[in-house]
Every structure is written in structure tokens, then in C-alpha cells.
Automatic annotation (TrEMBL):
InterPro entries: SAM-dependent_MTases_sf. This is Fused MFS/spermidine synthase. Gene3D superfamilies: Vaccinia Virus protein VP39. The lineage of its organism: Bacteria, Pseudomonadati, Pseudomonadota, Gammaproteobacteria, Alteromonadales. It comes from the Bacteria.
Length: 201
């Protein structure tokens, strides 16, 4: 976290995840599974205060750290299992998934049922952003094929230069990147660094 400007997105992969806002500019309801250091929660509270953001985190130690060190108020993060909690949400405009069990994704992140529940939680125009750390090159293609099968549309994929991260943006509708000039204007308004994301066809 940038102590001089807490809402700033410091980690590069978060700039790609925040691109979800471009595809759902009228968003009012957002959910994140895996709070990390609370960066997206602080960011959205700054650039889009009209968005109600619910955060779910399974690790109580992470929650307490967010309160103690990362400028999040007590009670603003729900302790729970994302695999279970996602079943209780519907009509989400934005869904951010950034879940790790140690340095790996939990097993349920590789199960079709979880991703079906994620899509079911979205509104018709909702956007799902997933941060992935693939173990091999074919894993991302597997995820893309999964969402193509579940939604009928291939997700957008971004890599983060110099990092293992791959970000998928998924929806119940086709997602097309705008012309670069349009994207630059959006990035400037939302304090995003386009150097942190490269589209993967």
C-alpha cells in the first residue's frame, strides 16, 4: 500500500482486474473473494464511491491485518469460504476473485461447479475478473475453454509483464477491447497503468 495515497493500486495485476470497470461503467454492486491487502476495496471506494463492495476472506489473520495496517474499518470484511458464499449472491455487476491457499490456488478454483456459480452470481451485464497464477501454459487455455463452454463467450485474457499472473475477464456477453485511444482515456480517468497489462489473444 502507498501510505501517501492508500487508494492507489500498487500491485500490477490489480490494474488489469480494475479494467472490469470499463465493461460495466454503471456498476453498483461488487463482490470480492479474497481481500489480500484490501487494495481493490480502497480503490473502488475512491474512484467509484457509488459501488457497494462486499469483501469475503477465509483467513481471519488476513482480515485483522487489513484492519490493523491497511486502512479498512472493522466489520467491512466478512469471514467466510468463497466457494460457499458465492452461492448466496445474484445480480452482481462486478465479481473479483483473487484467492490463494498459501502460494497456490485452492482446489475448488479448478472445479467447474465453482465457476458456474460465479457466472450465475452475475447480472446480465456483470463482469468477472479472476487473478490466476498458472502452473503451466495450457492451464490458461483450459480456463478460457471452460468459460467459453459455460457462458458461450471466450473471456479476455491479460498477462502482467514480468509476472506469472494472468487475468481473465469473463461475462455473459462478448467482451471486445476498445480502440487504444479510448482505453488510454479510461485508464487516465481511473488511474490505471496500461503498461501493466498485455492482451493475450
Amino acid at each position: 500500500m502507498d501510505l501517501s495515497n492508500p487508494p492507489t493500486l500498487v500491485l500490477p495485476h490489480l490494474h488489469a482486474m480494475a479494467l472490469a470497470l470499463y465493461f460495466c461503467p454503471q456498476a453498483t454492486q461488487a463482490l470480492e473473494l479474497g481481500v489480500g491487502g484490501g487494495a481493490l476495496k480502497r480503490y473502488l471506494g475512491s474512484v467509484h464511491p457509488n459501488i457497494h463492495m462486499t469483501s469475503i476472506e477465509s483467513n481471519n489473520g488476513v482480515i485483522q491485518s487489513c484492519v490493523d495496517y491497511f486502512h479498512l474499518a472493522p466489520g467491512t470484511i466478512i469471514q467466510g469460504d468463497g466457494q460457499i458464499e458465492i452461492k448466496h449472491y445474484h445480480c452482481l455487476d462486478l465479481l473479483f476473485i483473487d484467492i490463494f491457499d498459501g502460494h497456490k490456488h485452492p482446489d475448488f478454483l479448478k472445479q467447474d461447479a465453482f465457476h458456474r456459480d460465479c457466472l450465475d452470481s452475475l447480472s446480465q451485464l456483470g463482469i468477472l475478473a479472476i487473478n490466476l497464477l498458472p502452473e503451466h501454459s495450457g492451464e490458461i487455455d483450459d480456463f478460457q475453454q471452460l468459460y467459453l463452454r459455460l457462458s458461450g463467450f471466450r473471456p479476455l485474457c491479460f498477462k502482467v509483464p514480468g509476472y506469472q499472473n494472468r487475468i481473465l475477464l469473463c461475462a455473459k456477453q462478448p467482451l471486445l477491447l476498445p480502440e487504444y485511444a479510448t482505453l488510454v482515456k479510461f485508464a487516465r480517468r481511473h488511474h490505471l497503468n496500461l503498461n501493466y497489462l498485455v492482451s493475450v489473444l
